[in-house]
Amino acid sequence: MAERFDRIWHNARLATMRADRPDLGEIEDGLIAARGGRIVYAGAQSDFSADADAVERIDCAGRWITPGLVDCHTHLVYGGNRAHEFELRLKGASYEEIARAGGGIVSTVAATRKASEAELVAGALPRFDALIGEGVTTIEIKSGYGLDTETEMRQLAAARSLGGQRPVAIRTSFLGAHALPPEAGGDKDRYIDLVCKQMLPAVAKAGLADAVDAFMEGIAFSAEQTARVFQAATALGVPVKLHADQLSNLGGAALAAKFSALSADHLEHTDEAGAVAMAKAGTVAVLLPGAFYFIRETQKPPVELFRKHGVRMALATDCNPGSSPLTSLLLAMNMGATLFRMTVAECLTGVTREGARALGLLAETGTLEAGKWCDLAIWDIERPAELVYRIGFNPLQRRVWRGQ
Q: Which positions fall inside the Amidohydrolase-related domain (predicted)?
């Protein structure tokens, strides 16, 4: 009796992104078969059973199929916007000067605290839909604009709610250690006590966070304070991530590696010792060219060091109101190539396989192979490089999530 599938996509070209294949794992005359939302077969059509049956067959007319894209670093849920700060920066104010003057993250905190969960969801949906419209099937969303237990949990609940409104996978990260709230009176240690002893346990008990993140920087928190947050997360069994070495080298990459972090993100000022530590720990380097571009950074992340030591590299939008109001993962790839000199393969695997790895989801998504979720992006292109090369152009023909 012929094997039966829910759907078969045939007459396609596949960029499987599998690590055990050269380049992008391209397969000409490819076919994907799915059942129960998962890939059962992804490979050459000639190696697939000729008498296989399916509820639906889709002729892809020679189009390219990649895994659904993964945006592994966003701050998508927040209140208000910071266009006025953009104007200040154009007049010469630095990111740090705006933050120290009460702007920056703290201004978004005020707007977010005033917003209901429904208002946060409604505000995030246009940004969310922009990403989905480019073939994104998995999105990470951080909190960090509440800086009190109630608002942090409301942000995370809003992020989870977005996943119920659209066919997309959501991963949430608790970023309570993002900035110091005004009511802390400048006492960072006391605030970190609050994060570790009240906020994080409440978030973990409610099951609202898949990871814990922190911002380790001169304008944020020290290595010792960050380590306390990570120790508390580890004790609760929650994996960690880190905003590391963005504006200065405080050893963030090495600290992230010490705690076996899923990823260290930004990394413009990371040194060779940090790269070596990340490689040994398997911590993914998440590069965020949108923030580099928007705040007019000049120090590029050490891509050559990451290549030299075998550090996996992901790319993400860092969608946020202050330093990267970017809602295009396609543009993030072009920026990764033009600004950071990443290769086409590094960019494409960075928003698929390595983006999934940075979220601890590589066993479930990020490549086209049997057993993984059938999350696909089908493109009207002649070659995969077009996805990196073009600017302001979206060639997505169809997005598939869980086989639908």
A: 64-381
